C-alpha cells in the first residue's frame, strides 16, 4: 500500500511492496489498530468499567495495538515504505504511551499525591496534557498526509475529533463528550477496517476498493 500507487479516478492504493517480495506491512498494521481503538471506544461509552478494573484497557492498547503497530512500522522501514512507517510508528507511540500512562496512574508513579482531592487534580492535569499533545500530533499528521487517498485523511480527521472530545471530557467531566468520543472511535475503526479489507483483497488478487481522491494532488 503506497502513496505512489494511488490509482487515478479511484483513489485506491495498491500494495506494491508485495510484488517486491517484502510483503505489505498494512496487512498487520491496520488490524493492529483495531483492538486498542475498540477497547477505548467501549470505555468511553461506559461498557468497560475501569473504576472496578482500572487496568482493563492496558492489554489491548499496549500489547495488541502498541506492540504490533511497532512491528508493522519496522516492517515498513525494511521494505522502504517511509510514509507508512511514519504513520504506524506514530500510532504505535500513541498506544504504548497511553498504556504507560495508565500503568503509571494505577501504580502511583510520576509522584502523584495520595490525598484524594489533590490526586484527582494531578491526574486530570496529566491526562489533559497527554491528550492535547497527541491531538496536536495527529492534526499535524492529518495535514502532512493530504496526498493520501481520502479514506486515510478521513480516518486521521476523525481521530483528531475523538481526541478533542476526550479532551473535553477530561477537562470538565461531562459524560456527553465521552459518549460522542466513543462513537467517533467506532467510526475510526470502521474506516480502517474498510482499508484493511481493501488491502487484504488486493493481496489475494482482488480488485481495489474505492478510497476517494486525495485532497492535495
UniProtKB/TrEMBL annotation:
<dbReference type="InterPro" id="IPR000791">
    <property type="entry name" value="Gpr1/Fun34/SatP-like"/>
</dbReference>
<comment type="similarity">
    <text>Belongs to the acetate uptake transporter (AceTr) (TC 2.A.96) family.</text>
</comment>
<feature type="transmembrane region" description="Helical">
    <location>
        <begin position="57"/>
        <end position="77"/>
    </location>
</feature>
<keyword id="KW-0472">Membrane</keyword>
<keyword id="KW-1133">Transmembrane helix</keyword>
<feature type="transmembrane region" description="Helical">
    <location>
        <begin position="26"/>
        <end position="45"/>
    </location>
</feature>
<feature type="transmembrane region" description="Helical">
    <location>
        <begin position="177"/>
        <end position="197"/>
    </location>
</feature>
<dbReference type="InterPro" id="IPR051633">
    <property type="entry name" value="AceTr"/>
</dbReference>
<feature type="transmembrane region" description="Helical">
    <location>
        <begin position="150"/>
        <end position="170"/>
    </location>
</feature>
<feature type="transmembrane region" description="Helical">
    <location>
        <begin position="126"/>
        <end position="144"/>
    </location>
</feature>
<dbReference type="Pfam" id="PF01184">
    <property type="entry name" value="Gpr1_Fun34_YaaH"/>
</dbReference>
<protein>
    <submittedName>
        <fullName>Acetate uptake transporter family protein</fullName>
    </submittedName>
</protein>
<feature type="transmembrane region" description="Helical">
    <location>
        <begin position="83"/>
        <end position="106"/>
    </location>
</feature>
<keyword id="KW-0812">Transmembrane</keyword>
Amino acid at each position: 500500500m503506497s502513496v505512489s500507487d494511488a490509482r487515478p479516478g479511484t483513489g485506491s492504493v495498491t500494495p506494491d511492496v508485495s510484488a517486491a517480495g517484502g510483503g505489505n506491512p498494512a496487512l498487520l498494521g491496520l488490524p493492529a489498530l483495531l483492538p486498542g481503538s475498540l477497547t477505548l471506544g467501549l470505555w468511553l461509552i461506559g461498557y468497560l468499567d475501569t473504576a472496578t478494573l482500572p487496568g482493563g484497557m492496558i492489554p489491548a492498547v499496549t500489547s495488541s495495538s502498541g506492540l504490533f503497530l511497532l512491528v508493522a512500522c519496522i516492517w515498513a522501514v525494511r521494505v522502504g515504505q517511509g510514509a507508512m512507517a511514519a504513520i504506524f510508528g506514530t500510532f504505535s507511540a500513541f498506544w504504548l504511551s497511553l498504556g504507560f500512562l495508565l500503568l503509571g496512574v494505577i501504580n502511583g508513579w510520576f509522584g502523584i499525591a495520595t490525598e484524594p482531592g489533590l490526586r484527582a487534580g494531578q491526574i486530570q492535569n496529566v491526562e489533559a496534557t497527554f491528550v492535547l499533545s497527541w491531538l496536536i500530533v495527529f492534526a499535524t499528521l492529518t495535514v502532512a498526509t493530504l496526498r493520501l487517498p481520502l479514506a486515510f485523511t478521513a480516518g486521521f480527521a476523525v481521530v483528531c475529533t475523538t481526541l478533542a472530545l476526550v479532551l473535553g471530557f477530561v477537562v470538565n467531566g461531562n459524560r456527553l463528550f465521552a459518549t460522542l468520543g466513543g462513537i467517533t472511535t467506532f467510526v475510526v475503526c470502521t474506516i480502517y477496517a474498510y482499508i484493511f479489507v481493501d488491502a487484504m483483497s488486493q493481496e489475494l488478487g482482488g480488485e481495489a476498493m474505492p478510497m476517494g481522491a486525495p485532497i492535495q494532488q
